[in-house]
TrEMBL record:
InterPro entries attached to this UniProt entry: CBS_dom (IPR000644), CBS_dom_sf (IPR046342), Diverse_CBS-Domain (IPR051257)
Protein name from the UniProt record: Oxidoreductase
Entry-linked PANTHER family: CBS DOMAIN-CONTAINING PROTEIN, CBS DOMAIN-CONTAINING PROTEIN CBSX3, MITOCHONDRIAL
Superkingdom to which the source organism belongs: Bacteria
Length: 141
């Protein structure tokens, strides 16, 4: 079984600055087939924006996605983990704070993301959540 966050995380991070537009973040998500982007200001993670954040906090409010900044719709001050933190710490943080993803930071820079799906794959590869996490995105939608 995986012992450290670095063993289960999805390496590499797609990041945007807080002043990037919601459209820019959405296009990155589409291009990378992902549902979240780390928001970083220099060498500091300041938030995480998800496709749901864009939908609920911008589109559903009727805000102009070209004018709305990612920083204004992201979840600010996210929990973070280090690559050498134990996997048990990731599980405990997700449980305690009811979050599905946590940026992994090393030397102030985001180096990966650990998600609920990553943990499911590591802990119970035969689970429905692990199967869903491994599935390719729906090309029709």
């Amino acid at each position: 079984m995986a012992e450290f966050v670095k063993d289960v995380m999805t390496p590499g991070v797609v990041a945007v600055r807080p002043d990037a537009s919601v459209v820019e973040a959405a296009r990155l998500m589409r291009g990378q087939n992902i549902g979240d982007v780390v928001v970083a200001d220099g060498q500091r993670v300041v938030g995480v924006v998800t496709d749901r954040d864009i939908t609920v906090r911008a589109v559903a409010e009727g805000r102009d996605p070209y004018a709305v900044s990612v920083g204004s719709v992201c979840t600010p001050d996210p929990l973070t983990l280090a690559p050498d933190d134990p996997v048990a710490s990731a599980v405990a943080l997700m449980r305690e704070h009811a979050v599905r993803r946590i940026p992994v930071v090393e030397g102030g820079l985001p180096v990966g993301l650990v998600t609920l799906g990553d943990l499911a794959e590591a802990r119970d590869p035969g689970s429905a959540l692990a199967d869903i996490s491994r599935a390719e995105p729906d090309a029709t939608g």
